[in-house]
Amino acid sequence: MENIKGKVIIITGASSGIGAATAKKLAGEGAAVVLGARRTERLEELVSTIRQNGGEAVSKKTDVTSAREVQELVDTAVERYHRVDVLFNNAGLMPLSYLRDLKIDEWERMIDVNIKGVLYGIAAVLPIMRKQKSGQIINTASVAGHVVSPGGAVYSATKFAVRAISEGLRKEESPDSLIRVTSISPGAVLTELPSTITDPQLKQNIIDREKFHGISAEDIANAVAYAVSQPDGVAVNEVLVRPTTQIN
Ligand code: NDP
What we know:
The mean pLDDT is 97. This protein is α/β, with parallel strands linked by helices. The protein has seven helices and seven strands; from the N terminus they run βαβαβαβαβαβααβ. It has helices at 17-28, 40-52, 67-81, 104-132, 153-177, 200-213, 217-229, and strands at 8-12, 32-37, 56-61, 86-89, 135-140, 179-186, 238-241. The longest helix is centred in the middle third of the chain and has 29 residues, at 104-132. It has a seven-stranded parallel β-sheet with strand order 3-2-1-4-5-6-7, sandwiched between helices. The chain has one domain (2-240): 3-Layer(aba) Sandwich (Rossmann fold), CATH 3.40.50.720. The structure holds NADPH dihydro-nicotinamide-adenine-dinucleotide phosphate. NADPH dihydro-nicotinamide-adenine-dinucleotide phosphate is lined by residues 12-19, 37-39, 42, 62-65, 90-94, 113, 140, 142, 186, 188-189, 191-193, 217. The site of NADPH dihydro-nicotinamide-adenine-dinucleotide phosphate (NDP) has 31 residues, from α1.
């Protein structure tokens, strides 16, 4: 793949699933990856695997609900590699529930991580990328950012928001700052994502759906790598990747 080697790529939510698979993929293509999440043992293990395979990686404990910690993650990249080429805003959670169950704490958590976490990432890299007059911000939406299902109102709201933020960012920054903006919308992917669902029936439905349809985190990593690998003048703005058999 062209145009990945040598890039400095920050990934949030890199301790499992899509984030971890993407870190391995991009490091394997020659990028230096800067990895953030809360579970530091997982991050350290991933960094050591990448290094054993000849790749370049560093990690920093990051809770994306803290603007300061997200800034420190970006500072780590700049201190070590002196630039930021790509931010993959991937951290997210999906505690599905019916609105009538009033799981207000879970609504707030989704808004904090899935929306505000993405905004904190944008805030931390935008001044750098504007100055560089180059860069790419990849935000993780979802098929749930295109369609709404019962039990998914708030999760979908956060992912619709991610797509709106991505589109606004593109229109504001791409023409002059030459920053490429990508919104990636995965369908059912086999990861730890259902672990945050507290409604037993909704959790089982998702686990069953993912067992039946689920594609791998590596399949999404390939889509991210495709978007990163395009020539600088080519922006892949929207990617929607479903398992072939998934309808909604
Ligand atoms: P995982 O649960 O495997 O990964 C989620 C990642 O987000 C973990 O690394 C977790 O790290 C991190 N995370 C959660 N909360 C925080 C936080 N407060 N601060 C920093 N990191 C956090 O699920 P996926 O890989 O599937 O999810 C990745 C993204 O893909 C999410 O945005 C999700 O919404 C999206 N997505 C996933 C789909 C799927 O079917 N799997 C479908 C569509 C979209 P840690 O706990 O260590 O902090």
